Amino acid sequence: MRTPDIGTAAREDRSRIDFAALRRARRERVFAEMERRNLDVCLFGREGNGRYVAGSRRLWTSNTRPYLPSTVAVRATGRVHVMTYSASVDDAPEDIPTSDVYGRSFDPQTLVGIYASIPGLADARRVGVDGLTIPMRELVGHVCPHADIVGAEEMMRGLRRVKLPAELQCIRVAIAIAESALQRAADAVRPGACGRELLALYLERMCLLGTSTFAQQGAFAPAVGGPTPPRRTDDTPLREGQSVVLSGGALWTGYEGSLARTRWCGGTATPDDRHRRRYDRCRRLMDRMVDRCRAGGTGDGLASAYEAVGEPLAPMTIAYAVGLGHEGPIAGSPLGPRFDRSQTLCPNMVVALRGWVWDDTSGYFAEEVVRVTEDDPEILTTMGHGAPGGVA
Amino acid sequence: MPRASPSQAHGRGGYSSQVDVDFDRMRRERLLHLTEGLKRSGADGLVLLGPSNQEYAGVRRPCSDAMRIYYEPVVVVLNADGDLHVWTPFPEDVPPEVPTERVHRELDVEFPEGVDALGAALQSQFGPTPRLAIDEWTAPLLERLCDRRFTWVDGNRVTGPARLRKTPDEVACLREAQRINEVAILDARAALRPGVRQTDLSAVFFRRAFELGATASCVDPIWNLTPRDRASQSPTLHGEVGFPIASADRFLREGDLVLCDTGLVWEGYHSDFGATWICSDDPKPGAKLRDCFRRWRDVMACIYDSVRPGRTAADVVRDVTALEPHYKLEHFYLAHGVGCDAAEAPFVGTDRSLDLDDAVALQSGMTIVFEPVIWEDGVGGYRAEELVLVTDSGCERLSAHGYAPFEDEGP
C-alpha cells in the first residue's frame, strides 16, 4: 500500500501491522544471534529488550529494573519465558503459552525455584544479561551453576538498531501520535501560559489518541542563549517574544516517536527577525545533518555538520538510534570523535537528529527522526515549524 | 558547565509554593544518612546508577523516561567525606552545593570506553584497588571492572537502610505528591461513566496532575477492569484475581468494577493511590460488595491500631491475619514502603517467611502504603491503598481520599 495509511485502529480490509509476524521475526533474529555468539540463555531485565524478544507490554515507567530478569530466552528450546506482575497471562503476549509465564516472589528460595524450573537454565554454559545487581548475580549463580555470565546489551543494541518493515511502521505511528500531541501543546503557546500547562496538554492529547505511554515527558520551556537547549519544564509564565522549545515523544506498541520544535510566543505579533534568523540557521544545520544520514556514513559526519554550517557543536548527543526507546548515541556523546567514527549508518537504521543554535538572547531547537535508506534519507517527522518560521 | 540557580534547580512554585520543605536541609540530611551507611559498610565509596538512589543523593534526572534511561546515563559517586561526583547529561539537575569541578558530562557506561573512564576516575579518587558499593551494574561494567582491581559490595545495603526513615522534609514532599495524585484522581473519577476508555481516564488524570505540578508519573495509570468472578477472567498463575494489568483503549462499561492504581512524583517523592470504583450511571455497590468494603475497612482499622514503633512488620501481619486470613492477593503483599521509589523497603506480608518480617522493626519516620484486598468470588471485592506515616507514638494516615461509591467514611 503506497498511499499513506497511518492510524491506530484495526481495519477490516487489511492488517496495518501483523504483530504476530513481527514478534516471530524479532524472536528469530535474537535466537539466530544467540547461536552465532554461542549464548545458551539470555536473561533480560530491561524493558526494550523484553519488548523485543517477547513483545511484552509495560506498567512501570520509572527507574531501572535489573533486580529480576523479567524475560528469559532459551536457545535450546526456542522458548521465551516472561514474568507477570499481575499473575495474569494477560501480561504476556498471546503466543507465549501459559506454561512459559512465571510469577514473582520476595522469597529468594522461591525465586530460585521459579527460574530453576525453566528448562535449559540448569545446564546453560553461557548466559547473557543486560544488567545485574549483586544479589541477582548470586541468583543467576544458583540457577545456572555451570554458566559464564556475559554482557548481552551490546548484542541487543545491534539487533534493535536495524529495523524490520513492521517496526518502521510502528515508529511512523508513534511519530504521528507525538506530532499530534506536540501540536496540541504548540497551539497553546501564548503569553501567560506556562510550560507545565503545555506538558499537561501534550500528555492529555496522547492519551486521547489511545496510548498513555509517553516516550519521554519532554521539555516545554523558553529557549535561553547558551550551549544547550532547555530541559526543564516549570510554571514560569511565558512572555511575549520568547522562542519556546517543545520537545516530547510517544510510545506506540513500544516504539518511540520523539521530536522537538521551537515556537514563537507572540500573541498576535509575528516572529521577530532574531527568531527567524535562528530558525534559518537551525534549518540549514538540520538540512545538512539529514543529508549526511546515508548508508556508509558515520557519526562524526553528523557531528561535523555543525562545523560545516558554522555552528558550535552543542555539548550533548546530537544523533542517536531510536526504536524501542533510545538505542544508544551515534554522535556528539562524550565518548568522542573516535566513537562517532565507529558508528556506521546502514539501511533501515532510524536516527534522531538534534539541531541547536543560539545567540546571546535565545536559541532554536529541532529534533527530527530520519530513516537511513540505500539512497536518499527519509525524514519520518513531518510537523512544521509554524508560519513563517515558528508562530505558535 | 552551566548551572542553574538554587531556587530554579530544586525550588518549587505555583500551586505547590505553600509546601513547607527546606530542600537544602533535606538534601543535607539524606547525604548524611548515606555517608553514615557508607562508613558502616566498610566500602571506600558508593557508586549509584539507579535513578531513585541518585534522587536520594540529590541528583535528579527524568525518572519516568524508562525506555531512554540507559542511554541518557547518570553516574553518582559518593565518598566517605560526603562529597558527590556526578557525570550527567542533565547538569541543571545537580544540586548547587556540588562544586562545578565535580560535575562532568555523562559517562556512557553502556560502552567499554565509558566504563574504562569510570574505572579510571574511581581509581584516581579511591586508589588502585578500591572497595566500592554499587547499586547496579551495566553489562560492560560487569565485564570490565569486575577484576582483581575492584572489590564490589551491594550498594543497596547502604541506600536501603538510609532511605528507610524519612525526615520531616521528605514526609512533606510525600504529602504533596499524594495530594496532587488525589486531586487529579477526583477529576478522573468524575469522568468515569459507561463508555469511557481506560486511556480517556489517563488523559483527564495526566492533564490535571501536571497542571498541579507533578514532576513525573511513575506508572502507566491503571484502571483495572476486574471481573467479579474469576472464571470470567484470563487465566492467572494461581487462580486469583489478575491485577494490575496495563491499561489500553478498553471501554469501561455499565457495571464494571474498576481497580485503579496511580503513581505521581513530586520533587523526587512518589505517591500511591489505589481505590475500587464502579462504572455505572448509578454506582451503588450491592450488599455483598459493600460487605467486602466493610471487611476491608475493618482490616485498615486493625492496621491503624497495630502500627507503632516497637512493633514489627510481622506483628501487623499477625494482627491482620487473625481478623481476616485472606487479606491480599496471593502474588502481592500487605504493604510496601514508599519514598524515592514507588515501592521500596519495608515490604510487609510478602510470600517470604514471617520470620523475616519479624526482623523489620517499625520505626518513626517510615512511610508505608497498606493495600489489603478483600475478595469474594462471584461478588467482586474491594482494594484501596492508604499511605501511612509511622509516628513516635503510633501512626498517621497521609492519604486523604474518601471511599465513594462505597461509604464515605474512612477507617
Structural class of chain A: alpha+beta
Radius of gyration of chain A: 23 Å
Strand content of chain B: 15-25%
Mean pLDDT of chain B: 93
CATH fold-level assignment of the largest domain in chain B: Creatine Amidinohydrolase
Number of strands of chain A: 15
- Mean pLDDT rating of chain A: 94
**Protein chains sharing the most extensive interface:** A-B, 92 and 97 residues
The amount of helix of chain A comes to 25-40%
The appropriate CATH architecture of the largest domain in chain A is Alpha-Beta Complex
Helical segment count of chain B = 11
The shape of chain A is: globular
Range of strand content of chain A: 15-25%
End-to-end Cα distance of chain B: 52 Å
For the termini of chain A, the CA-CA separation is: 34 Å
Explain what the structure shows:
The complex is a heterodimer of chains A (about 400) and B (about 400). Chain A has about 400 residues and is an alpha+beta fold. Chain A folds into two domains: about 20-160, Creatinase/prolidase N-terminal domain (Creatine Amidinohydrolase, Chain A, domain 1, 3-Layer(aba) Sandwich), CATH 3.40.350.10; about 160-380, Creatinase/methionine aminopeptidase superfamily (Creatine Amidinohydrolase). Chain A has helices at about 20-35, 45-55, 110-115, 135-145, 155-160, 165-185, 195-210, 275-290, 300-310, 335-340; strands at about 40-45, 70-75, 80-85, 100, 125-130, 130, 150, 215-220, 240-250, 255-265, 320-325, 325-330, 350-360, 365-370, 380. The longest helix of chain A has 23 residues, at about 165-185. The radius of gyration of chain A is 23 Å and the shape is globular. The mean pLDDT of chain A is about 95. Chain B has about 400 residues and is of the alpha+beta class. Chain B folds into two domains: about 5-165, Creatine Amidinohydrolase, Chain A, domain 1 (3-Layer(aba) Sandwich); about 170-395, Alpha-Beta Complex (Creatine Amidinohydrolase), CATH 3.90.230. In chain B, the strands form five sheets. Chain B has a six-stranded mixed sheet. Mean pLDDT of chain B is about 95; it is low at about 1-15. Classes of the chains: A alpha+beta (about 400), B alpha+beta (about 400).
